[in-house]
Amino acid sequence: MSLSALGLDPHDIDTPLNLQFSVPYLISLAALGVKPGPDWYHPDKLTDSEVREFMGKVKIEIDPRSAAELVRAIREEPTKRFRKCPGSISVVAKGRTFDAETDYLLGDPHTSKTTMTDDRLRDKFRTYSSEVLPRSKVEKAIETVDALEKLGNVNKLVELLVR
Questions:
Q1: Which residue has the higher pLDDT, 26 or 84?
Q2: Average pLDDT of 138-149?
Q3: Cβ atoms of residues 36 and 20 within 8 Å
Q4: Residues 6+ apart with CB under 8 A from 100
Q5: CB distance 22 to 12 below 8 Å
Q6: Which residues contact 24 (CB under 8 A, 6 or more apart)?
C-alpha cells in the first residue's frame, strides 16, 4: 500500500514537520552525500534542483511487516507501544538492486546495535550545535552534562547553551 493511498504525500516538504519526516527528501540528501545534521534543513537544500529531481525517483510503500507489528502492539501490548519497527529498503542503481531490512530503529534501546550510546549522543550534539555554539562551549556543555549529578545548579549548563 502506498502512502498516497492514505492521503499522505511523502514528497511534500513545504512545512517543517513534513520536511523532517519526508523519506524521499532525506534519502535524496543522503544519496547526494549531504551529512546528516543542520545542512539537511538549510533553505538552499529545499530548492536544490538535484535534490528535487532525486526525490522524484524515490517511491515509498508501507512495509507490511511494520503495519502488522503496529496492529499487534495496539491489540496486545498494555502500553500500546511496539518494540519492533520493521522496515526495508530496496535501492535500484545502475541496473543493480540493493536490499536491506531491519526490525529496530537506530536509537532503540532494545538491541546492543541500536542503543543510543553516550558517544553517539555526544556526536549528535556536536553536529547539531556546531553552527550555533563555539566548539569550546560545545565541549564544556558535554562535560557538564556528563557530570550533571554533581552540578547542583543548572544555570551553569544553561549559560553554556547560549551563544
A1: 26
A2: 94
A3: no
A4: 88, 89
A5: yes
A6: 10, 11, 55, 56, 58, 60
Helices marked H in the chain: 16-20, 23-31, 43-47, 49-55, 64-76, 118-129, 135-146, 155-160
* DSSP bridge pairs for 2: 61
| Mean pLDDT on 20-44 | 89
Mean pLDDT of the 43-70 span = 87
Phi, psi at residue 100, to the nearest 5°? -150, 150
Average pLDDT on 61-81 reads 83
Q: How far, in Å, CA of 124 to CA of 37, rounded?
A: 8
Q: Per residue in 114-147, is it b (16+ CB within 10 Å) or e — as a string?
A: eeeeeeeebeeebeebeeebeeebbebbbebeee
Contact 55, 74 (CB under 8 A): no
What pLDDT score does 8 carry?
60
Q: How many CB atoms neighbour CB 28 within 10 A?
A: 24
Which grid coordinates are listed for 57?
Answer: 525517483
Residue 6 has pLDDT above 80, yes or no: no
